[in-house]
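Colleagues,

For the teaching module next term, I've prepared a clean inverse folding example: a structure given as tokens, and then the sequence designed for it. I'd like students to try predicting residues themselves before seeing the answer, so please don't circulate the second half yet.
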């Protein structure tokens, strides 16, 4: 009996074969190469870019299969609207809270105070390109862009919201035709397994991508470039950490799970974002892990991709914190009314520029363009260090979306709490057994 039990016990792989260990090692190696061999480090950018492209090419089919099969399996189509409504409500509340937290911390710590920079001495050309992009990212244009020109075009462009839009409509259509749609559902379910297996194969290249991306960042910008503006960077990282542990931690506790356990559960995805500065690189893995943690596929398919555009806690903290930093650095006085206006404009602009490369900086440009009190040229002060804050933005966004998925699934009664407890406790550690 004991022999049989021993034979059935899964064999754990050595620690160095775990993805998070390999990615962490690659990040450290990238920092060392970028610091001591900056020219070599800067030349390794294609490694990071190639990995992100590899993952990006699989995002559209992952979203389509997950959302379509999830909705097609719903007995009550009204549930689709109910889940989406609860998700948007959650996103709105906590995105606004993140903006408010950024404002409060900036007023409390005053990271830009004492710099006394004259806005007239700043070069507006340095941020002209970002400001130009920001003008075309209004809320209306964003909503119109959700509708693709063609079905194939949405997949070809890899636009997350367009693919989500098509997936929801197609899933509803399959559910409406009843039994006639079941052969399609069976085919899509069968296709899901090899697609997720392909995702796992592509993740093997994550350490190479993280190494190249980190070596490029340190090689091009240098560690020394952080010294002058370390107060802003430190304030932003501290604010993001407090928001995750206190605000999101409270939400997690109220819904019956630990924020620390969740962070440990998705550590591979967090390290992947840290190494590549791309939250999209972790999207397929996050969706798979949320489903493994007991969330119903239909909820995962709706909440995670939508959250990537509407639930940007890290970006929101960055926007209000950076805006007040610029105001403080340029001795620009802001009344309470000015700050409230800034918060309201940021709420809209954060949705308008979602899904755009460099969205954090472009969103900031859009916000400042609409709030004349703060000089847009002041963005030149943080242009050089924005790259070092993008990791925290992306990681905070990632953790926020993981929590949102579990919370909405819990609200909807679509959370298997036994599976969630087992997954967060790593019992069994299915993802670590090969």
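(Answer key — instructors only)
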């Amino acid at each position: 009996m004991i022999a049989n039990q021993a034979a059935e016990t899964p064999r754990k792989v050595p620690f160095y074969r775990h993805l998070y260990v390999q990615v962490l090692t690659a990040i450290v190696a990238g920092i060392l190469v970028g610091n001591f061999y900056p020219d070599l480090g800067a030349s390794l950018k294609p490694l990071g870019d190639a990995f992100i492209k590899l993952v990006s090419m699989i995002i559209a089919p992952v979203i389509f299969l997950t959302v379509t099969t999830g909705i097609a399996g719903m007995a009550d189509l009204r549930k689709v609207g109910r889940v989406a409504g609860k998700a948007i409500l959650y996103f709105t509340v906590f995105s606004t809270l993140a903006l408010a937290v950024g404002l409060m911390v900036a007023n409390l710590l005053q990271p830009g105070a004492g710099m006394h920079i004259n806005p007239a001495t700043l070069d507006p050309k340095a941020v002209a390109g970002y400001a130009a992009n920001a003008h075309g990212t209004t809320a209306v244009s964003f909503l119109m862009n959700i509708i693709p020109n063609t079905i194939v075009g949405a997949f070809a462009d890899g636009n997350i919201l367009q693919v989500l839009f098509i997936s929801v409509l197609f899933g509803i259509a399959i559910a409406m035709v009843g039994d006639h749609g079941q052969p399609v559902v069976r085919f899509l379910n069968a296709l899901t397994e090899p697609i997720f297996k392909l995702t796992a194969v592509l993740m093997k290249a994550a350490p190479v991508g993280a190494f190249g991306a980190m070596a490029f960042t340190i090689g091009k910008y240098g560690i020394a470039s952080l010294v002058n503006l370390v107060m802003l960077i430190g304030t932003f990282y501290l604010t993001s950490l407090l928001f995750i542990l206190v605000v999101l931690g409270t939400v997690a506790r109220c819904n019956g799970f630990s924020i620390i356990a969740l962070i440990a559960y998705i550590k591979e995805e967090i390290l992947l974002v840290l190494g590549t500065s791309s939250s999209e690189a972790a999207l397929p893995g996050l969706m798979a892990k949320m489903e493994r943690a007991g969330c119903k596929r239909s909820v995962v398919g709706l909440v995670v991709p939508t959250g990537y555009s509407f639930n940007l806690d890290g970006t929101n903290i960055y926007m209000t914190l950076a805006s007040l930093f610029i105001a403080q650095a340029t001795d620009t006085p802001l009344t309470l009314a000015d700050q409230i206006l800034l918060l309201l404009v940021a709420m809209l602009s954060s949705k308008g520029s979602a899904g755009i490369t460099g969205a954090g900086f472009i969103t900031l440009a859009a916000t400042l363009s609409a709030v004349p009190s703060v000089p847009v040229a002041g963005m030149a002060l943080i242009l050089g260090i924005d790259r070092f804050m993008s990791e925290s933005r992306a990681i905070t966004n990632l953790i926020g979306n993981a929590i949102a998925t579990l919370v909405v699934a819990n609200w909807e009664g679509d959370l298997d709490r036994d599976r969630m407890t087992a997954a967060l406790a790593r019992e069994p550690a299915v993802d670590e057994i090969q």
